[in-house]
């Protein structure tokens, strides 16, 4: 049983967040029914866990979360003209079950039960993991990596797990490692928050922000590899789970 | 040389902090508050773009705000970075290129509404979310420093306003008054987000002003929202804030009395939140004429004496002039032709009412329309010309009322105003001498009367404004002569600003879904 399935079954036990007007969407059994329907009707294109394939990734969080229930329902029920997404003959109740599953798949990690020891995870974050060299929480920490203050409140659990264990699978937008050699002779090392053929926005290792034009840059080295190490081999399984537990509890609104 | 200029900017960008004293200086290369300055004049000393060369303006960049449908924000600019908000979003852009530096999205916020802008202080930018959270972000990275909830949607509150930074505090207000939510103004610590003071715009039971409401129910559910930013006089340490209409908006039978402090200008001690004075423009309002056009602070010679004044163009069609030290009423001038609810304003500042203009179940024609002769779209004031540039709407409505028992928080307003198809509204930009009330010039803005566009004035004797057809227009501030225009192909529901980076002046405005920036054409140099 893979980790994703474990998590989904866990969700089925505790119930998805209340995100819909539909009663079906509030029913934990609907999430499980939706999972079974997804496996038989959707996974061929969208991947077994919704990670994408011939069809788009459905677990990346924002795409599904930004769509309202009616839009999702219509997309599943009627298909998307001009794409390979076909209409379905499933009855409405089962379409809602599919949507309940999609919602659960994309729910922020903070809203689901996650195993592990939060306090131990925090110790790893602050110490052994070295996370704060690059990441900040509530203004404390580095700025080379994404701010994590609201990580659990904004990202699904699967993304957090992936970022910790397989950081190179998906490079965070706006955090591309780069070395820029300026015509002045200065060299800047950091991450590119944005770049085009004509402009560069770089945050260096000291946290300073540079807004540059191409006319100022003599040479550039931009890599596709995440500077974040994988914690697959750096931490024990328990430590990984503790760290993920801590990260999943980071929610800006929960600390008010 | 060019590189040297850039490196200066970069060094500054990495360390600079926005100080209260910087905001006190008013707009220069920066634009640090919603209205540009604490005075709310929206007048910039920049003059590189001027009446002689404005015809050479050209687009410098366009930034599309994903998902945006109705941007109402006034951007702020500091040190070459432009900050613009959408509903529960803040985007930081390179002000020279429009390239995004970072974006903050709060996807946990309840609902989607317009948002009118951000505040900046220290190394932080601030915004309010739809569900009344004040959020502090690091201005360079967008990292979240804290979130503070200051009102609850369960009590009918929401937020759309640009927060307002004064000294060490961030001032916030609320929306929801049209569903009864009781208005307040609150000051939060800029450092921690903790609430420092709160002033209710409807008095508590037994407090002065509570006798102006006939039912105790209204003291809890009376409206008087604070959904727009305000202005501030540092010498007097007074905030000037306007309040919204009493609730239910269109039926006053259950709230006999003046209904303080609805439809008022309130002067508030910035340190303590104590009410220093108030002036009510529309006592016992039944036309939804919120006082939300912000107070413009000016120092002028009036009737032979230099005075500290506050100007306020009200939704009810009159431009008011008050002494901002004492709140004393000085003068009111009718600034639209379509006005029939009052014959004038008396010596005490009270309207001389025309009988039969209250809404009725069968409908009553009255002018101005429910949208108001003026509204939250920005006026501006040029000290050199002495003119107030004011977007105005000539329109009447049919007003309906209902005696139905008011129920708060369900959108019940006691019914409302309906436009008259045979009498379409028309926007006019008017340049008004506030001392005499004379309309020195006016600029017609034909269109469907759907714009909510404001103005900015510059020392280059140019006034920029959005029209009713999606155009950003530049006119000569002295004469109203057309200088330049640019079509955005979108409805404009925001107000322009101007700023400077690397010695180059820009003008920027939000359209429905994009931020546009303009500057002077630069011919190629061989």
Structure description:
The complex is a heterodimer of chains A (256) and B (526). Chain A has helices at residues 3-14, 28-41, 43-46, 62-65, 69-78, 92-106, 118-126, 151-154, 157-165, 237-248, and strands spanning 136-137, 140-141, 176-182, 187-195, 199-204, 209-213, 217-222. With 256 residues, chain A is an alpha+beta fold. Chain A has a five-stranded antiparallel β-sheet with strand order 6-5-4-3-7, with no helix packed on it. In chain A, strands 1-2 form a two-stranded antiparallel ribbon. Chain A is globular and about 65 Å long. Chain B is mainly beta. Chain B is globular. In chain B, strand 4 (81-86) and strand 5 form a beta hairpin. Chain A binds chain B through residues 62, 65-66, 108, 136, 138-139, 143, 147, 149-150, 153-154, 174, 183-184, 193-194, 196, 198-199, 201, 203, 206-213, 215-216, 251-253, 255-256, and chain B through 2-3, 6-7, 9-10, 13-14, 67, 80, 94, 96-97, 99-102, 105-108, 133, 135, 138, 140-149.
């Amino acid at each position: 049983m893979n980790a994703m399935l474990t998590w989904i079954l866990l969700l089925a036990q505790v119930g998805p967040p209340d995100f819909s007007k539909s009663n079906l969407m509030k029913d934990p059994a609907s999430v499980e029914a939706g999972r079974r329907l997804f496996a038989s009707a959707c996974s061929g294109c969208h991947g077994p866990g919704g990670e994408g394939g011939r069809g788009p990734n459905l677990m990346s969080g924002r795409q599904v979360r930004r769509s309202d229930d009616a839009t999702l329902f219509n997309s599943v029920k009627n298909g998307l003209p001009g794409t390979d997404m076909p209409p379905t003959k499933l009855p409405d109740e089962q379409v809602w079950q599919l949507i309940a599953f999609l919602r659960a798949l994309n729910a922020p990690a903070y809203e689901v039960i996650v195993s592990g020891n939060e306090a131990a995870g925090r110790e790893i974050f602050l110490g052994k993991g070295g996370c704060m060299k690059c990441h900040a929480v509530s203004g404390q920490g580095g700025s080379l990596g994404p701010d994590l203050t609201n990580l659990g409140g904004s990202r699904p659990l699967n993304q957090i797990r992936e970022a910790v264990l397989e950081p190179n699978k998906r490079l965070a937008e706006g955090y591309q490692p780069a070395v820029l050699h300026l015509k002045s002779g200065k060299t800047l090392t950091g991450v590119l928050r944005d770049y085009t053929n004509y402009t560069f926005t770089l945050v260096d290792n000291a946290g300073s922000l540079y807004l540059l034009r191409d006319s100022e840059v003599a040479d550039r080295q931009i890599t596709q590899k995440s500077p974040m190490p994988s914690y697959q081999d750096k931490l024990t399984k328990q430590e990984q789970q503790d760290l993920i537990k801590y990260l999943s509890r980071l929610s800006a609104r929960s600390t008010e | 040389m060019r590189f040297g200029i850039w490196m200066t900017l970069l060094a500054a960008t990495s360390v600079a902090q926005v100080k209260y004293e910087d905001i006190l200086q008013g707009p220069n290369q920066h634009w640090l508050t919603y209205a540009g300055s604490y005075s709310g004049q929206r007048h910039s000393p920049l003059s590189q773009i001027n009446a002689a060369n404005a015809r050479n303006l050209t687009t410098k960049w366009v930034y599309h705000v994903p998902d945006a449908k109705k941007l109402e924000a006034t951007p702020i600019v500091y040190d070459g970075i432009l900050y613009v908000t959408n509903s529960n979003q803040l985007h930081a852009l390179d002000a020279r290129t429009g390239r995004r530096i970072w974006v903050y999205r709060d996807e946990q916020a309840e609902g989607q509404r317009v948002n009118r802008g951000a505040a900046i202080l220290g190394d932080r930018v601030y915004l309010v979310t739809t569900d009344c959270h004040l959020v502090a972000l690091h201005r360079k990275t967008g990292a979240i420093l804290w979130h503070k909830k200051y009102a609850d949607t369960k009590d009918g509150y929401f937020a759309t306003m640009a927060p307002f930074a004064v000294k060490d505090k961030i001032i916030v207000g609320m929306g929801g008054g049209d569903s009864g939510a009781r208005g307040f103004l609150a000051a939060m610590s800029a450092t921690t987000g903790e609430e420092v003071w709160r002033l209710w715009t409807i008095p508590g039971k037994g407090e002065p002003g509570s006798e102006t409401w006939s039912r105790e129910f209204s003291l809890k559910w009376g409206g008087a929202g604070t959904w727009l930013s305000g202005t501030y006089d540092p010498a007097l340490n007074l905030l000037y804030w306007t309040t919204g209409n009493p609730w239910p908006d269109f039926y006053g039978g259950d709230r006999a009395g003046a209904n303080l402090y609805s439809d008022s200008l309130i002067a508030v001690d910035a340190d303590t939140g104590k009410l220093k004075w108030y002036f009510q423009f529309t006592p016992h309002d039944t036309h939804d004429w919120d006082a939300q056009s912000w107070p413009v602070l000016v120092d002028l010679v009036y009737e032979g004496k230099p005075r500290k004044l506050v100007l306020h163009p009200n939704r009810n069609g009159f431009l008011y002039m008050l002494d901002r030290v004492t709140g004393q009423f000085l003068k009111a001038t009718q600034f639209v032709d379509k006005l029939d609810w009052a014959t004038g304003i008396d010596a005490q500042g009270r309207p001389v009412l025309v009988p039969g203009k209250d809404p009725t179940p069968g409908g009553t024609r009255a002018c101005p329309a429910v949208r108001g002769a003026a509204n939250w779209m920005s006026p501006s004031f040029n000290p050199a010309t002495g003119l107030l540039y004011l977007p105005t709407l000539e329109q009447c409505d049919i007003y309906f009322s209902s005696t139905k028992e008011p129920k708060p928080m369900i959108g019940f307003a006691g019914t409302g105003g309906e436009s008259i198809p045979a009498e379409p509204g028309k926007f006019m930009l008017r340049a008004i001498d506030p001392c005499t009330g004379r309309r020195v010039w006016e600029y017609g803005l034909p269109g469907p009367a759907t714009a909510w566009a404001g103005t900015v004035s510059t020392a280059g004797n140019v006034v920029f404004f959005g029209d009713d057809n999606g155009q950003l227009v530049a006119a000569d501030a002295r004469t109203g002569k057309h200088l330049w225009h640019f079509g955005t192909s979108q409805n404009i529901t925001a107000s322009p600003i101007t700023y400077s980076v690397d010695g180059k002046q820009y003008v920027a405005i939000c359209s429905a879904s994009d931020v546009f920036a303009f500057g002077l054409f630069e011919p190629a140099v061989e």
